[in-house]
Amino acid sequence: IFKKLFIFMANFKNEKISLQREKIIKLLRSTKRKGVETLIKFMDESNYFNCWGSFRHHKYNGGLAEHSLEVYDAALSNNLNCDKNSIIIASILHDLCKVQYNFPKETGDYFTKGHGTKSVRIIEDYIGLKLTDEERRAIRFHMGCKSKIKDEEELKEYTKARDEELWELIHSGDCISCGNYPKTLHSVVRNVISFLGL
Predict the structure, then answer these.
(1) Is 47 left (phi over 0), alpha (psi -120 to 50) or beta?
(2) Which of 37, 89, 102, 186 has its CA 20 to 30 A from that of 79?
């Protein structure tokens, strides 16, 4: 009976991972962004759909894709004025640097930079997908005050990001998905911001 239960659970998990993959690919293709097919190929080759979210949250196969979809769902449900395509790109790709992939030696410096910077560089420099300035900032600084800000130029970019709705959506969606604060608090914050016109 335990063997049958184990097989059932493994099949259930594989089906969930497959459904997450289908949803993410459909979302990415819906953006009609140049380079999306190259990106999807990279995601398959890098084991994106089977990776853990991190060592602190979503610690299981498929956790990274599940986390990214949770960020997308939270961002979309609280969106006021952001372009949906930007929400898709920033939420699905904000943690792309967590993939299991052997980069060529010359690109090894991707792994000596900050968390968000790694994802941006992989997206733009390695895959060749073009990001808007807002998307780049939303991904680069999605960790908020925990982002590694090295100089005054990056501080200026971080300050710009904090004034942009896309950054707020991705950052707060990330916090919700990681369990840093509950969905109800997020709704209250968004309603107050909307009411005050901030």
Answers:
(1) left
(2) 37
